[in-house]
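Please fill in the sequence for the structure shown.

STRUCTURE ENCODING:
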C-alpha cells in the first residue's frame, strides 16, 4: 500500500510551467530515486510535496490524507521530513542546536530527543565530535550530515532527500550514502533526488527519470541501470 501518492502534479513559477502531470508512488520502507539532468524539475517536485510550493494541479496524498498545498509544519507533523538542497543550516548556531531544532516544534519528538540524538550521532560520529562547534565552520560533507540529522530528529516515516552528494568529495559521498542505507534499514521510506544517477539507482529499489518536467522512464532500478537509452543519455555509456 502506497504511503505517499503524488498524483498528476503540475507546477508553475508565475506563467512558466515546470512540472507536467508528475505521478509517483512510494510504498512503506522502500527507497525510490528521482533522477534526471539539472533543471529537470526534481527539486521543484520535492518542494511541492513538502508544502514549500503550491502545485497548480494534481494532489499529494500522504498516509491517505490529501495534503496538497498544506503548511509545511502540518506535513512534518504527519511524518514527513525534507532535507533540502543547499542544506539551509543555521550557520551561527552550534551543531547540537541545529540538531535540536529538528524536534523543537513536535512535542513527542522533543520528549524523545535525547534518544533520537544518540541514534543520529551513531549514524554520523563526526557530528558527535563537533556538537559545540558552529555549523558554519563544518566542511560541506559534515554540513550535509547535519542537515540529514536535523531532519531525522522529527522522527519521520518518510524522508525527502535533495542532492545529498552535491559538491562532496568521494569519501564524504560514501559516508552519506552509508548513513542513508542505515536509515532505510530502520524502515524509513526515502525519496531521493540525486544527479549522480548511478549512485542513486544503486541505492534505490525503483526509479523515475524526470526530463523537462515530465516522467519519461520508470521501473525497478536494476532495469533502469541496464536500459541503453538511460545509459547513453545520463551515464555516458
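FILLED IN BY: designer on duty
SEQUENCE:
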Amino acid at each position: 500500500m502506497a504511503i505517499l501518492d503524488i498524483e498528476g502534479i503540475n507546477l508553475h513559477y508565475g506563467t512558466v510551467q515546470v512540472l507536467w502531470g508528475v505521478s509517483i508512488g512510494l510504498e512503506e520502507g522502500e527507497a525510490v530515486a528521482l533522477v534526471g539532468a539539472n533543471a529537470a524539475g526534481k527539486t521543484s517536485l520535492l518542494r511541492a510535496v513538502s508544502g514549500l510550493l503550491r502545485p497548480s494541479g494534481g494532489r499529494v496524498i500522504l498516509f491517505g490524507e490529501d495534503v496538497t498545498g498544506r503548511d509545511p509544519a502540518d506535513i512534518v507533523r504527519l511524518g514527513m521530513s525534507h532535507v533540502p538542497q543547499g542544506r539551509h543550516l543555521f550557520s551561527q548556531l552550534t551543531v547540537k542546536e541545529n540538531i535540536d531544532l529538528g524536534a523543537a516544534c513536535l512535542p513527542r519528538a522533543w520528549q524523545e530527543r535525547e534518544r533520537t540524538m544518540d541514534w543520529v550521532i551513531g549514524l554520523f560520529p563526526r557530528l558527535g565530535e563537533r556538537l559545540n562547534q558552529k555549523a558554519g565552520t563544518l566542511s560541506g560533507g559534515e554540513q550535509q550530515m547535519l542537515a540529514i540529522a536535523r531532519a531525522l530528529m522529527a522522527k519521520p516515516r518518510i524522508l525527502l532527500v535533495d542532492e545529498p552528494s552535491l559538491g562532496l568529495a568521494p569519501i564524504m559521498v560514501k559516508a552519506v550514502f552509508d548513513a542513508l542505507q542505515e536509515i532505510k534499514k530502520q524502515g524509513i521510506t526515502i525519496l531521493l533526488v540525486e544527479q549522480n544517477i548511478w549512485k542513486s539507482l544503486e541505492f534505490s529499489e525503483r526509479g523515475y527519470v524526470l526530463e523537462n518536467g515530465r516522467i519519461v522512464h520508470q521501473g525497478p532500478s536494476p532495469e533502469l541501470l541496464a536500459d541503453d537509452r538511460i545509459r547513453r543519455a545520463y551515464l555516458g555509456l
